[in-house]
Amino acid sequence: DAGLVFIGPTPAQLTLFGDKASARALAAEHGVPLLPGTGAATLAEVQAFFAAQREGDPRCGVILKAAAGGGGRGLRAVADPAQLAAAFERCSAEALAAFGSGAIYAERLMTRARHVEVQVLGDGRAVMALGERECTLQRRYQKWVEVAPSPGLDPRLRDRLTQDALTLARAAGYTSLGTFEFLLDDAAVTPGGRRDTDLPYVFIEANPRLQVEHTVTEEATGVDLVQAQIAIAAGRSLAALGLDPLQPPPPRGFAVQWRINAETLDAAGQPRPSSGVLTRCDLPCGPGVRVDTAARVGLAASPHYDTLLAKLIVSHRSAHFDDVLRRSQRALAECRLEGLATNLPLLRALATHEDVRRNAVHTRWIEQQGTALQALLAAHSRLRASSSSLTGGSAAATTSATAAPAAPVPPNGLLALR
Predict the structure, then answer these.
(1) Distance CA 263, CA 250 (A)
(2) How far does CA 234 lie from the centroid of its chain?
């Protein structure tokens, strides 16, 4: 009404995709695969749905989701029908507080899933896909690591995901950036597993906005997504931006985003936010290393917002996923954040884990690997303390009585670099 243009999708598209139940209805209308589920439902309706699902499989569970939700809030996986009422009440209360709506719907639970999302860009007339991202490494439905493109994804399955995302975007006449998210049956996408099942993947939701993990798509494709959405809001077309929907830019190797948070894992594998003031903030740089952050010495992490301190984005032009992981290991090792606890030890452990290298993970992998990850975290913490004491860092406290001896004087003609 004020004659201004909102940088992003239209109000109608925000309404459509902001309600996950209406997004599911659109997918059903266009034949996009879905898990069995309800619309916005009462507790009695969800209980009846759970009972119906258990008739075919007595071990199956359901997942409760906030209809207006996002970011992992208002979500609960329920395996025991006796816990359903309490979980429904918690989800509804959390959704109401976070989103202003306590509406809840339910879906059948896919217990071993991979999470892959397709990046879409539209100008209101044409739409295109800018590849996919894998965000399977997560905890409590919050993503920790994102990769573009998805390592080892079967080309046929990639094409099906892309076409379904474009079908939904075209149906809405999509404008600006959006992410169309899918769960993949782990057995359907794991090497050696089944490849052609009736339900190898399902659509779960669309996020009509720029995502936190957009950076890996930018590094993999060379397209500045923030710049693109501003240009489209100013009235430019995809063609004017030099983008052809029929020939999207191919990925240039791999890019990985590591979310550095002010939090730690407890002995049970659950994340716990940390507080304090950053007394040291050294972040890596160099070829293939990008850091998006507002962290600085003197920053006090707020308990009222997300615990994210920095996004470390590492890319490599190599077609081998191992190469970007090796560069990631070096970049993570160069991070020095002191004064408050972070998840850096966990990220370093993940970057060296064989399952991550083989992409043999699923959305509950971190929870199931809790004990094993604790041992890796301890090893990485000891290594960090040892390294810091050798380089004069403050991670290992010393006193004048126990301070490390001075470094030996180098022989003539040699210079010690510190």
Answers:
(1) 36
(2) 29
Of the candidates 234, 295, 210, 238, which has an alpha carbon nearest to the alpha carbon of residue 261? 295
pLDDT, one tens digit per residue, over 328-337 is: 999 999 999 9
Residue pair 38/49 in contact (Cβ under 8 Å)? The answer is yes
Residue 87 to residue 110: CA distance in whole angstroms = 18
Residue matched to tokens 């119906």: 52
Distance from C-alpha of 345 to C-alpha of 320, rounded to nearest angstrom: 24
- Joined tokens for residue 51: 């009972």
Question: Which of 46-60, 157-171, 205-219 is predicted least confidently?
Answer: 46-60
Is residue 170 annotated as part of the catalytic site, yes or no? no
Query: pLDDT tens, 68-94?
Result: 877 678 888 999 999 999 999 999 999
- Helices 43-56, 84-99: crossing angle, 10 deg rounding: 130
Catalytic residue among 195, 209, 252, 364: 209
Cα dist from 104 to 37, 65, 76, 113, whole Å: 11, 6, 11, 22
Which amino acid makes up residue 123? D
Give the pLDDT confidence of 367-406 residue by residue, as tens digits: 888 777 877 777 766 656 555 554 444 433 333 333 344 5
